[in-house]
Structures are given as C-alpha cells and as structure tokens.
Specification:
Helix content: 10-25%
Shape: globular
Number of helices: 2
Length: 139
Amino acid sequence: MIACEGNKEKKTEKTAYWDEIVIFTRNQKITVRQDSDTANFENRMNTRGNSENEILSKSFLLNKKERDSLHKFVYKMITKPVFTDKNATCYAGYVSISLRDRNTTLGCEYKSVGEWSTVSSETQKIYKLLSEKIEISRQ
C-alpha cells in the first residue's frame, strides 16, 4: 500500500484577465490597457471666456508589473469598497474607477470626498502609482 502523504491540492493564483481600467477624476481621464505599455491621459481644461473645454492628451508608460499592481489595487477597491464618512463641500473630490473584462464592467465611484486618494489604502496605492507617472488630480 502506497500512501500519498502531503499530496494536498495547492491553490494556484491564476493571473486575472482584464481588458481595461478607466479612471475619471473631475477633469481627467486615465485609460490603462492590460496588453499595452502605453496608457492614455486626458486633462480637460476650461479656458477663460470659452464655453468649451480644451482637452490635453498625452501618453505615459506603465510596465507589466505596474499594470498588474494597478489591477490588483483597482480590483480590491471595487470588490471590497470602503464606505466613507468623508464629505466635502462644493462637490470637491470625485473619482470613478472601472475595470472591464471582456463583456463585464465593474466600478466604484466616490463623490464629494475631498481628496479621493485618502479614502482607503487602495485609493492611496492607486494615486501613488499613477502620480509617479503623471500629474493626477487628488480631487
């Protein structure tokens, strides 16, 4: 008789598949795709005397490790949201983050929270990672 001691199933963490992460702040949009080292950043600026917003677009680099970290932070933020008592006047502090995977989109949105980057440890990590690459708004 042969015993299979220690033959326990090992949980393997499979790499999560995702297509795109989109982050909106009050005047900005950041789009990160899993299959691209280049992310897109749009900044909407209202110029004086003009009723239309001027959109400044630029690209920035995120390597695979940074994209995977961002995905991990966003996924946790969306699936385990923090309900906050933070409140700001004049609707200051807005962020909407969505995660798209083929035909499903998950999202989380915080409004009137002052500095959105301080709502949770996940929002802090998202802000820190992105602010090292671009000038992202805290509100």
